[in-house]
Amino acid sequence: MPKAQRNLRIREILEVARRTRMEFAAQVVLITFTGAVAWMATGLHCIPLWVALHFGLITVERKITRRLRNSESPFALPAVLAAHLAIGAVFAAMPVYLWMQEDEAFHFTGTVLLLGSILNIFLVRAQIWYLALCFVAPDAVAIALIAGHIARQTPTPAQAITVWVVASAIIVYLGVALLQAARAHRRHLVTREQLVQSQKMEALGNLAGGMAHDFNNILNVITGTLDLARDERDPARIAAQLDRAHAAADRGASLIRQVLSFARKSHLEPRRVDPPAVIAEVETMARRLIPERIAIDTLVDPDVPAVRVDEGTLVTALLNLVLNARDAIEGRGRIILSCTLAPGLPSGRRGRVMFSVRDDGHGIAREMIGRVTEPFFTTKPVGEGTGLGLSMVAGFAAQSGGALQIDSQEGAGTEVRMLLPLDDGPAQPKPPAPANRPAPAPIAKPRCVLLVEDQRELLELLQIFLRRSGHVVHAASSGDAALALIEDGVCPDILISDVVMPGQMQGRDLAALVRERFPQAQIVLMSGFEEASFGCPEQKHCDMLFLAKPVRLAELAEAIAPR
């Protein structure tokens, strides 16, 4: 199981504990009171020991769960589930013990305890099937042991068979209920993913107008600069104008990558994230969404440490908070994005980074603050909001091991603070930014290049560049055409291919075929989509290089340089 999925499951268990604090408090009072009464009435010293052991295990389990929620160990989730299994086993042991006593009052007490355990499973634990299993299994064993004890006491075989039939029916029912819980949990995960995507699509719709404006400006710079270069005679001025066009194209490529990352559909993939970079990205996107009458300021501590979260979902969450702040401001106003180390943490707790979005809008009524994170609850007029924004932000914060705090006062604005855990791992070096490096000189020994690209103008451009570099180029406009060239005897030293193309043979398939037939060939894949969108079909094929479009010629030359 991937580490991100393990950590997500641990955080789901933590979230169940957080949502059921009142039920747990009632359980403490009820079990402690009844245990004390039973001890005084019966004199059984095992009862207070059982109560102490039960709540002691719960305390240990919660400490283990909090400590392991961001663990790298593959044994983190099994350790958490083992702690829950121990709690379930200890609780189920008492009904069995009471049924072994002769007094029928003990039998009634044991039955009530077992019934309470089953109700607790399906009212609280069933939200997560693998958590419910840790309590269903001990209860099923307890029912079987009690049935065996009763069957041994019955005078006739028919009565014993009846006892076992009833016990088996109850155990089967528990199994069926567990399967239903598993299906409900899967539906919940699918629904949650769909809600996250709906929020992204809503924000992308808002971004479309601003993006169109930015792209028109970028295209205007490129076309205007090329028009000037066409009529220019001075080589130095031509080079300067072409550099300006290159810079504009890079801005367009950066904008595309930003939107692709934002719209990416995936499960949470926590990794090391630099908070100042996230704030800068959110500010850039927010300025396309916020009217000029609303000012946007940022307050960022440059020394704030990295956090461990899913970067794309963090950007989505902050952008949702910015959109909420925009909608809360009537007329002129100000939105402040800030990022600092969270103050005032109790000693012994891991540090957190605080992301904050503050506005000077109309604020939220005190009686509403407790409800604003409920799904589909909104204070906006009908048709102007789904009521999912703050709910999704709160869910993301909880799944990431953090928390959401809201401060608001009517007429004085609102501040939403998201506290996220620090990343304890070593810093990862950032990849160098692409530079306008000159292409290398033609190589001494020509190499055979199989070039596959379905966009005609790009195919011709890359052909010209590769032939100028001294390579022998065989070009194809699809994977199927490239396969035909190979069947006709082309033996490529280098494969350069788009990933998504018309026809049956896609870039990944072609690369796998070339790797199998020509093990020494270099393979370079190009795409305008994210590399993570395609995955790696087999581990042995993961030595392929990936270049994100638009591909700079210098980058391509470096990628196919002899090794």
TrEMBL record:
Domain Histidine kinase: 210-424
Residues the record lists as 4-aspartylphosphate modifications: D498
Response regulatory domain location: 448-563
Keyword Membrane: yes
Catalytic activity: ATP + protein L-histidine = ADP + protein N-phospho-L-histidine
Principal EC category: transferase
Keywords: Membrane, Phosphoprotein, Transmembrane, Transmembrane helix
Superkingdom assignment: Bacteria
One MF term in the entry's GO annotations: phosphorelay sensor kinase activity
Gene3D superfamilies xrefs: 1.10.287.130, 3.40.50.2300, Histidine kinase-like ATPase, C-terminal domain
Regions crossing the membrane: 76-99, 105-123, 130-151, 157-179
EC number: 2.7.13.3
Pfam families membership: HATPase_c, HisKA, Response_reg
Record PROSITE patterns: HIS_KIN, RESPONSE_REGULATORY
Matches recorded under PANTHER family: HISTIDINE KINASE, SENSOR HISTIDINE KINASE
Protein name, entry field: histidine kinase
Source species of the chain: Rhodobacter viridis
High-level lineage: Bacteria, Pseudomonadati, Pseudomonadota, Alphaproteobacteria, Rhodobacterales
